[in-house]
Amino acid sequence: MKKQPEVTAQTRQNLIDAFWSLYCEKRIENITVKEITNKAGYNRGTFYEYFTDVYDVLEQIEQSLIPGIDELPPVNFQNENIGMPLNMFMKLYEHNSKYYSVLLGDNGDPSFASKLKNATKPTLRQTFYNNNIDPVEFDFVLEYVLSSMIGIMSYWFRKNKVLPAERLIELIAELTENGVKKYLL
Q1: pLDDT, tens only, 3-38
Q2: Are residues 105 and 164 in the same domain?
Q3: What residues does the HTH tetR-type domain cover (predicted)?
């Protein structure tokens, strides 16, 4: 007897949702398969049809949130002074904010930020790389920019979007183009 794809997809999503509600409350090492299945209303055997363990659930969620190079929106140059494509990152972050705000938060997965940076670096490298810059140094520049963008957007969500999104994008652009000196002196 073959399972119905809609039912299978819904069962998998129910297990993911149950895991996620637990993950929002506590660290992954404190989550059990039994808790997930009890919350979702399934037995352990059903869980193991979709996942190997609780870490596999988290890994599958993270993989679904990390854009492939073909999924990233193209970077359009409208003028010479474009800077980093901040709107691209803001849209990506807001689209996945339910997950990003937790994964990139204090109790999230420390490796997720690195996975996210590694997924977006190829697009930025292709768009902005200049042959006059040492490729190793350029990689450090990308790491710096992506770390600061991910950090400030995570902070923005933790602060319940206290700044309007447009102002946050302006602030990131100002900091990227002019540095922080003006704000600290």
Answers
A1: 687 878 899 999 999 999 999 999 999 999 999 999
A2: yes
A3: 9-69
Whether the pLDDT of residue 89 is over 80: the answer is no
Segment 131-160 mean pLDDT: 87
Q: What is the CATH number of the domain that holds 47?
A: 1.10.357.10
Query: What is the tally of structural domains in the chain?
Result: 2
Residue given tokens 């990689």 in the structure block: 139
> Residue by residue, what is the 3-state secondary structure of 36-100?
HHHHHCCCHHHHHHHCCCHHHHHHHHHHHHCCCCCCCCCCCCCCCCCCCCHHHHHHHHHHCHHHH
Q: Check whether residue 49 and residue 123 sit in a common domain.
A: no
Q: pTM of the entire structure?
A: 0.77
